[in-house]
Specification:
Number of domains: 6
Helix content: 25-40%
Number of helices: 27
CATH superfamily of the largest domain: P-loop containing nucleotide triphosphate hydrolases
Radius of gyration: 41 Å
Mean pLDDT: 77
Shape: elongated
Structural class: alpha/beta
CATH topology of the largest domain: Rossmann fold
Strand content: 15-25%
């Protein structure tokens, strides 16, 4: 036995047999039982063997303000550092009983006990061990520079994307120049929490021939093996971090199942077009001098499936994708937003071939930038888009309004293509509804699906149809639960079955997104509700139904569909009622506009309102725009007024532009109604605008009789009432006045006797004395003059 003494330590003993250094209090136990020490079993006392320390953990509680420093070191007595031949500040490998290891620099502590090994609580969390024996040895192998580090979130189980993004930036700052191991845990403070991560894999920087002169001599000949668990890695400022939650693989699988092209209906041509554009870049070979980057803008109103289509295409390609969101980019710190855009684009370039998905593109580059940060982000985005040339990277931008994006972004080699997702037409809605119902158990016939898709879902987009299915399934589930409670059944849960009644009810609860701002309730008026007017009904069928049902017949004779119809006639002659019947019978999207709704006190707002009406009509085409009282916005312009300062004249000019402007008015028909056609500007009445002019005169004998028949179906009459006599007595009455006669007669019957069940002749005689025809002869002459001039 040899006694060893240092200035800063008490006496130690060294076993001459096995060369183990230990405290003299444990020497007798060592020589009698543990000489030489068996390192495969737990040791009961601290000792040094082959310049390795075998000791026990203790928690270091620092009262110093520099807590972060002590989290990064392991503290032992200076004696241990000397006996193990470890210089202060050199990295040591700490291995716990659970085979977890961490690397930390050695730092001395005043406590001179041999068994003193101090770590902070955070370091113990990284080691995943808070008690038991540990082994400490000097790191002989130089660390390898780390290129990419993949972490898995252990605690908590999940975090928001915002938190994950912020943690990625904090990791570089907290662990710069630290030495780590694959499989090690990382713990650090994050807004009062201590998230725990496990290092899954580490990719090292390979040594290239061009960089040999720039690195130290001992790193030149190192053979890197990224699969070795004992390889040490050093974190550099440019080390990339990737964080996966514990459910990332499940989420990825769910994402692949959720976003599938087979669930999209009605846009097969758009899908093929998008595939061609993406595969041209991603699946082809190019020379280095060719520009191969591709930018695609997908635009359309909310709910049409823009984001769904983009993510489904990403799942189909199975390529790396970089998501860019506005909340992820914008920051309160100067220059950080531009730096984040640069990092995300560089990540896509390194992973090429890859895809970049930018949601809400207009938030990055609005056509009218208001803040300095928006301008800096916009120019940073332009710069990175220009740098994508010669890389197989597809950039997909999603926006609701194409006009809200800065025009500089839509030039070639930035965003080359623009793909619009339209509002689904009747056939597309049927296809979408069928595909949506495949995910539910239902008993809905194909006839009902076709009826709902074509007739009961004007202006519906994909999200509206999906919501209708959800509501129908919810009602079916509620009905199933109620029936079980009534019948006192307590069995296993049964999947709800959607019935036809459930689905029909659900469609009445959903407001169509495409017509949300300008939709009126679909009027329940049919041609059969309008008495007489057979010629007008036939004319409307020719104008609105023939172009859709017999397009080849019109094309064969060189006929183009009429753009506009003018209904004129005395008040109360069912002009507006005819328009309501058009909305019901034609199965078209119906937009009703009143002249007063278009006027605004702000300059330019009235013209903008007209443009918006026609834009909405084009989006939801085939559609009908009904202008009631058109003379309120299209009166004759004054010849001496050349300044155009009159709001009414500017609105009229905008209306004329929309009717036959440069942009074609495809599948949009304008119906206008007025009592005074003579006041309408002649420019609006020329061919190509309001082509068809239909006079709705005072009802004839047959029309009045048809109106009375319809009213008598609702109101029971006595046998003494002769319908032909009553029809003759109402000559000169408008349709509304004939209905008023019936209403007054019924009210008179109730005044005499609340129990009366029929209306008799005397009641109609009284009503005829109260309700008189009020259409002036002068107005009828105006109509005759207008017809002759036409």
């Amino acid at each position: 036995m040899t006694s060893i003494r240092y200035k800063c330590i008490s006496a130690w003993k060294k076993c001459n047999s096995c060369q183990t250094i230990l405290d003299e209090h444990d020497f007798n136990l060592h020589t009698s039982v543990h000489c030489p020490p068996d390192l495969k079993i737990e040791w009961s006392y601290g000792h040094i063997y082959e310049k390795k320390l075998f000791s026990f953990l203790k928690i270091f509680e620092s009262r110093d303000k520099n807590e972060m420093f002590f989290n990064d070191v392991i503290q032992v007595s200076l004696t241990i550092a000397q006996l193990c031949d470890i210089p202060i500040g050199d990295p040591v490998l700490i291995t716990a009983k659970n085979n977890r290891s961490i690397v930390k620099p050695l730092w001395p502590i005043k406590d001179n006990l041999l068994s003193s090994v101090f770590l902070t609580k955070q370091s113990l969390g990284e080691l995943d061990c808070f008690e038991g024996p540990v082994e400490i040895k000097k790191v002989e192998k130089p660390p390898v520079p780390a290129k990419n580090i993949v972490l898995k979130l252990i605690k908590p189980e999940s975090m928001s994307e915002t938190q994950i993004t912020e943690i990625s930036f904090m990791l570089s700052a907290n662990f710069n120049n630290k030495i780590i191991l694959c499989g090690q845990y990382l713990v650090f403070s994050f807004y009062g929490q201590r998230p725990k991560f496990k290092i899954i894999s580490i990719a090292a920087h390979r040594v290239s021939e061009n960089s040999i002169d720039n690195i130290t001599e001992h790193l030149k000949n190192i053979e890197l093996d990224e699969n070795e668990n004992d390889t040490l890695y050093q974190i550099l400022p440019n080390t990339k971090w990737e964080i996966k939650t514990s459910r990332s693989e499940e989420n990825k699988k769910e994402c692949c199942e959720k976003y599938c092209l087979s669930k999209l209906g009605g846009i097969d041509k758009i899908i093929c077009d998008l595939k061609d554009k993406m595969y041209y870049v991603l699946a082809s070979d190019f020379n280095t001098e060719q520009n191969v980057s591709c930018g695609i803008i997908i635009h359309g109103i909310s709910g049409t499936g823009k984001t769904y289509l983009a993510k489904a295409m990403i799942n189909l390609t199975k390529l790396p994708v970089v998501y860019i969101y506005s909340w992820q980019i914008f920051s309160k710190y100067f220059g950080e937003a531009e730096n984040r855009i640069k990092q995300l684009f560089e990540e896509a370039i390194k992973k090429a071939p890859s895809i970049i998905l930018i949601d809400e593109l207009d938030s990055f580059c609005p056509s009218k930038s208001s803040s300095d940060q928006e301008k800096r982000v916009f120019y940073a985005l332009l710069s990175m888009l220009d740098k994508l040339n010669n890389f197989k990277v597809v950039v997909i931008g999603i926006t609701r309004q194409l006009d809200s994006i800065e025009s500089a972004l839509k030039k070639p080699r930035r965003f080359d293509y623009e793909i619009e997702i339209p509002v689904p037409d009747a056939n597309a809605r049927v296809e979408i509804l069928k595909r949506l119902l495949m995910s539910y158990v239902h008993e809905v016939s194909d006839e009902i699906i076709i009826h709902l898709g074509q007739s009961a879902s004007h202006g519906f987009v994909g999200s509206d149809l999906s919501l209708a299915c959800v509501l129908a399934n919810t009602q079916a589930a509620n009905n199933t639960t109620i029936n079980r409670e009534i019948n006192n059944e307590h069995g296993d849960y049964k999947c709800p079955v959607i019935t036809e009644d459930n689905l029909i009810w659900a469609f009445t609860q959903v407001k169509p997104s495409a017509m949300r701002e300008i939709l009126i309730e679909t009027p329940n008026v049919k041609w059969s509700d309008i008495g007489g007017q057979e010629e007008l009904k036939q004319k409307f069928k020719q104008v609105l139904e023939w172009p859709r049902e017999h397009p080849k017949a019109l094309a064969r004779l060189g006929l183009d569909p009429l753009r506009g119809i003018l209904l004129f006639g005395p008040p109360g002659c069912s002009k507006t009622m005819i328009a309501k019947a058009v909305a019901t019978e034609s199965k078209l999207n119906f937009i009703s506009i009143k002249g007063a709704e278009l006027f605004s006190k702000w300059v330019g707002e009235s013209e903008k309102a007209v443009r918006e009406v026609f834009r909405k009509a084009k989006i939801v085409s085939p559609s009908v725009i009904f202008f009631d009282e058109i003379d309120a916005i299209s009166s004759e312009r004054e010849a001496d007024n050349t300044s155009g300062s009159n709001v009414q004249e500017r609105v009229l000019s905008q209306l004329l532009t929309e009717l036959d402007g440069i942009e074609p008015l495809n599948n949009v028909t304008v119906i206008a109604a007025t009592n005074r056609p003579d006041r309408i500007d002649s420019a609006l009445l020329r061919p190509g605008r309001l082509d068809c002019k239909l006079y709705v005169p005072l009802p004839t004998f047959n029309t009045r009789m048809a109106i009375l028949h319809l009213q008598f179906m609702k109101t029971p009459i006595d046998d003494d009432v002769d319908i032909e006599t009553l029809t003759n007595l109402t000559e000169g009455y408008s349709g509304a006045e004939v209905i008023a006669v019936c209403h007054e007669a019924a009210m008179k019957a109730l005044q005499e006797n609340l129990s009366s069940e029929k209306v008799n002749r005397s009641h109609f005689e009284y009503a005829l004395s109260i309700v008189q025809p009020r259409t002036p002869t002068k107005l009828l002459k105006i109509y005759d003059s207008f017809i002759k001039n036409e």
